[in-house]
Amino acid sequence: MQHAHLPTEYLLIAGVVIVLVGFAYLRRRGRPPAATSPEIVEEFRRRRRRQWLIGIPIFVLVSPLIFRHKGEPLPGGLPYAALCCGVIIVTLIASHRNWRCPACGAYLGRYSGDRCRKCGVGFR
Asked: Cα 24 vs. chain centroid, distance in angstroms?
Protein backbone atom coordinates (compact mmCIF):
# COMPACT_ATOMS: atom_id res chain seq x y z
CA MET A 1 0.00 0.00 0.00
CA GLN A 2 1.37 3.35 -1.05
CA HIS A 3 0.78 6.52 0.96
CA ALA A 4 -0.20 9.66 -0.91
CA HIS A 5 2.22 12.51 -0.28
CA LEU A 6 1.58 16.16 -0.89
CA PRO A 7 3.91 17.64 -3.46
CA THR A 8 6.48 19.95 -1.93
CA GLU A 9 5.13 22.86 -4.00
CA TYR A 10 1.85 22.75 -2.08
CA LEU A 11 3.67 22.72 1.24
CA LEU A 12 5.83 25.64 0.14
CA ILE A 13 2.80 27.66 -0.97
CA ALA A 14 1.00 26.90 2.31
CA GLY A 15 4.08 28.00 4.28
CA VAL A 16 4.35 31.28 2.37
CA VAL A 17 0.65 32.01 2.90
CA ILE A 18 0.93 31.34 6.63
CA VAL A 19 3.95 33.62 6.95
CA LEU A 20 2.30 36.45 4.97
CA VAL A 21 -0.92 36.23 6.98
CA GLY A 22 1.11 36.29 10.19
CA PHE A 23 3.02 39.39 9.12
CA ALA A 24 -0.18 41.17 8.11
CA TYR A 25 -1.72 40.35 11.50
CA LEU A 26 1.31 41.58 13.43
CA ARG A 27 1.58 44.75 11.37
CA ARG A 28 -2.06 45.61 11.98
CA ARG A 29 -1.94 44.59 15.63
CA GLY A 30 1.20 46.58 16.40
CA ARG A 31 -0.30 49.88 15.23
CA PRO A 32 -1.49 52.09 18.08
CA PRO A 33 -5.13 53.15 17.85
CA ALA A 34 -5.67 56.55 16.29
CA ALA A 35 -7.20 59.35 18.27
CA THR A 36 -10.97 59.63 18.05
CA SER A 37 -12.65 62.99 17.73
CA PRO A 38 -16.33 63.78 18.28
CA GLU A 39 -16.61 64.77 14.61
CA ILE A 40 -15.46 61.32 13.48
CA VAL A 41 -17.90 59.59 15.86
CA GLU A 42 -20.78 61.77 14.63
CA GLU A 43 -19.87 61.20 10.96
CA PHE A 44 -19.74 57.44 11.56
CA ARG A 45 -23.23 57.56 13.13
CA ARG A 46 -24.51 59.47 10.09
CA ARG A 47 -22.97 56.93 7.73
CA ARG A 48 -24.38 54.00 9.70
CA ARG A 49 -27.86 55.57 9.65
CA ARG A 50 -27.53 56.21 5.90
CA GLN A 51 -26.42 52.61 5.40
CA TRP A 52 -29.66 51.35 6.95
CA LEU A 53 -31.72 53.79 4.87
CA ILE A 54 -29.99 52.63 1.69
CA GLY A 55 -31.40 49.13 2.20
CA ILE A 56 -35.06 50.23 2.36
CA PRO A 57 -35.61 50.56 -1.44
CA ILE A 58 -34.32 47.03 -1.98
CA PHE A 59 -36.67 45.63 0.66
CA VAL A 60 -39.66 47.53 -0.74
CA LEU A 61 -39.03 46.41 -4.32
CA VAL A 62 -37.96 42.83 -3.64
CA SER A 63 -40.54 41.94 -0.96
CA PRO A 64 -43.36 41.33 -3.51
CA LEU A 65 -41.04 38.88 -5.22
CA ILE A 66 -40.29 37.08 -1.97
CA PHE A 67 -43.86 36.91 -0.64
CA ARG A 68 -45.65 35.89 -3.83
CA HIS A 69 -47.20 32.44 -4.12
CA LYS A 70 -45.48 29.75 -6.14
CA GLY A 71 -46.55 29.73 -9.74
CA GLU A 72 -47.72 33.35 -9.75
CA PRO A 73 -46.20 35.50 -12.47
CA LEU A 74 -43.83 38.29 -11.52
CA PRO A 75 -45.71 41.39 -10.40
CA GLY A 76 -45.18 43.98 -13.11
CA GLY A 77 -43.44 41.55 -15.44
CA LEU A 78 -40.17 42.36 -17.14
CA PRO A 79 -40.23 46.14 -16.48
CA TYR A 80 -40.52 45.46 -12.75
CA ALA A 81 -37.62 43.02 -12.86
CA ALA A 82 -35.51 45.57 -14.78
CA LEU A 83 -36.42 48.24 -12.21
CA CYS A 84 -35.41 45.90 -9.37
CA CYS A 85 -32.06 45.18 -11.02
CA GLY A 86 -31.43 48.89 -11.57
CA VAL A 87 -32.30 49.79 -7.98
CA ILE A 88 -30.11 46.98 -6.64
CA ILE A 89 -27.14 48.17 -8.71
CA VAL A 90 -27.59 51.80 -7.67
CA THR A 91 -28.00 50.74 -4.03
CA LEU A 92 -24.83 48.66 -4.11
CA ILE A 93 -22.87 51.58 -5.55
CA ALA A 94 -24.32 53.98 -2.95
CA SER A 95 -23.53 51.53 -0.16
CA HIS A 96 -19.96 51.07 -1.35
CA ARG A 97 -19.43 54.83 -1.48
CA ASN A 98 -21.09 55.45 1.91
CA TRP A 99 -19.67 52.65 4.05
CA ARG A 100 -16.18 54.03 4.52
CA CYS A 101 -14.10 55.10 7.50
CA PRO A 102 -14.69 58.82 8.17
CA ALA A 103 -11.01 59.30 9.03
CA CYS A 104 -9.05 57.43 6.33
CA GLY A 105 -11.70 56.52 3.74
CA ALA A 106 -11.07 52.75 3.90
CA TYR A 107 -14.02 50.52 2.98
CA LEU A 108 -15.47 49.05 6.17
CA GLY A 109 -16.88 45.90 4.56
CA ARG A 110 -18.58 43.67 7.08
CA TYR A 111 -17.91 46.01 9.96
CA SER A 112 -17.74 44.31 13.32
CA GLY A 113 -16.09 46.31 16.02
CA ASP A 114 -15.65 49.80 17.26
CA ARG A 115 -12.65 50.93 15.19
CA CYS A 116 -11.38 51.03 11.64
CA ARG A 117 -9.28 48.02 10.65
CA LYS A 118 -6.95 50.18 8.57
CA CYS A 119 -6.20 53.32 10.60
CA GLY A 120 -7.44 52.23 14.05
CA VAL A 121 -9.64 55.26 14.70
CA GLY A 122 -12.49 54.57 17.15
CA PHE A 123 -16.14 55.10 16.23
CA ARG A 124 -17.68 55.22 19.72
From this structure: 19
